[in-house]
Amino acid sequence: MPSRDHLSRDSIASTAGAGIYSLSLGAASVALPLLALQAGYSAFAIGALTAASAVAQMLVRLALGRAMRRWPDWTLIAGAGISLAASCAFVTVSDALVPFLAAQLLQGASRACFWTGSQTHVVRGEGRAAGALAQMNLAGSVGQLAGPVLAGALSEHGPALALAVSAAIALLGVVPAALLDRLPPFAPPPDRQPGRIWRRPGVDVGCWAGVSAGAWRALLTSYVPVALDAAGQTATAVGILIAIANGAQLLGTGMAGRVPSRGSVRALLAAIVATGGATALTAATAASAPLAAAVLAVSGVAAGAVQVLGPALAAEAVHPEERGDAIAVTGTFRAAALLAAPAAVAGLVVVVPLAPAIAVVGAGMTLPAFALRRRGTS
Question: d(Cα 39, Cα 137) in Å, to the nearest integer?
Fold first, then answer.
């Protein structure tokens, strides 16, 4: 197996691939809705198309554990880059509904294949999974920060140009995928434990960590900006506050890679509580920029730690040949939360104001940590 203790060609390719893919995805995630608005689609239609992407991501993740027993992980990573490029290209040709829907479905499938394939690849080497995942996620987070900036600048000349550039960047990401070590597909162990893998000790913690990280990301990109705007923050202030949360996530990702193995579970459970608790306070503190910045920073650091420690614990809790299944199932829980968290807030705001609705969902994000602790997981 490749070593993760030095900068090998494989580790450089993994890190570069995550940065390139995230740059393309970050740009496309901004340019695609801008192009839809330009084409005359309503806010409801854009929301429905985005939801279709989330559903596609979740459904594809359900099949990836089996897929990685047939095909090597690097092929999923390369295919994800090609799929993302095709997603961007479709809508530059036509702004009809079918190309837009195809673009969102392809983007969802691409996300599922890339992150599952990449995470699975890096945890198969020697050494601790958390350190390898932290390195890859850091590169991905930098790309996610730079991508929207790139899309915004290019969209001054038209969102279609931004999407064309995003497609070219996605294709460039196939190069590092081709340089990855050719690890074979997974071979199920003969003594594989019966039952659902997500119920196993360690994997269950990783799955609920995926829920926490997914819900945080979903709310940060949906109702948190709405709450900040409703509280009177300017558009510039909203952008800065969201950037603080994303920057703090980078910090949390880096810190998670240094958590000792012995304290990983306790650190993860504490981070899940901090993510949910801080998220619950975001709307209540939205009127005060300093308070909102502090709360968003705490939630970002905690969420960054959660997204590293969760998959790492799940991967290290199973047989090496089951790591693909473990990574895939944690990603499925994350994808479900990306869809469920905004839907839960949308349902609650029918009967209560936005601040209590976000508080309820945020508080709900902490419950898995307490349940897992009572079961003696820690």
Answer: 34
CB-CB neighbours of 287 under 10 Å: 15
Q: Which domain holds residue 84?
A: 9-178
pLDDT (tens digit per residue) in 122-156:
988 776 788 888 889 889 888 888 888 888 888 88
Q: How many domains does the chain have?
A: 2
Selection from 172, 220, 197 nearest residue 331 by Cα: 197
**35 in Cβ contact with 95 (< 8 Å):** yes
Digit-coded pLDDT (tens) for 266-297: 899 999 999 999 999 999 999 999 999 999 99
Measure the CA–CA gap between 2 and 374, rounded to whole angstroms: 38
Are both 162 and 38 inside the same structural domain?
A: yes
CA angle 311, 31, 278 (to 5 degrees): 45
**What is the per-residue pLDDT across 62-86, written as a single tens digit (0 to 9) for each?**
899 889 999 999 999 999 999 999 9
Same domain, 63 and 114: yes
Cα end-to-end span (Å), the chain: 30
**For residue 335, what is the domain's CATH number?**
1.20.1250.20
